[in-house]
Amino acid sequence: MSRKKTVTKIQSDYVKKYDAQQQRQQKKKQRLIRRLVLFSIVVVVAVGVMTMYHMKQRAQYASKQEEYNQLEEQLTVLQEEKNSFLEEIELLNNEDYVLEIARTNYFFSKKGELIFKILDEIPSY
């Protein structure tokens, strides 16, 4: 069986000063803990905001990179088309080429030449 021991406090100036010092240290410790918790919350929020911003930037970068690749492909196609048109312009400056096109597409004939049109389809009669 345990007996309850009671100890009475000594009422002296030293004990009162000691108790006051203990209370000040306890309050100081509580303020420190509150500041650390507040600082931790600020750090967590800052890291969260920076992480969200980074993810947003990565998504934006990926979309811009995709758009850039599409535009590069389009540029390549347009350059090939430009080269084709330049070749065609160069050929159209050649008189023999223009006469050949006129003969094949528009039935232009040389002097004394006869042109017969041959149907590719078989007549149904």
UniProtKB/TrEMBL annotation:
A Pfam family of this chain: DivIC
Keyword Coiled coil: yes
Coiled-coil residues: 15-95
Keyword Hydrolase: no
Chain ranges passing through the membrane: 36-55
Protein name (record): Septum formation initiator family protein
One of the GO BP terms on file: cell division
Record's keyword terms, sorted: Coiled coil, Membrane, Transmembrane, Transmembrane helix
Organism, scientific name: Ornithinibacillus sp. 4-3
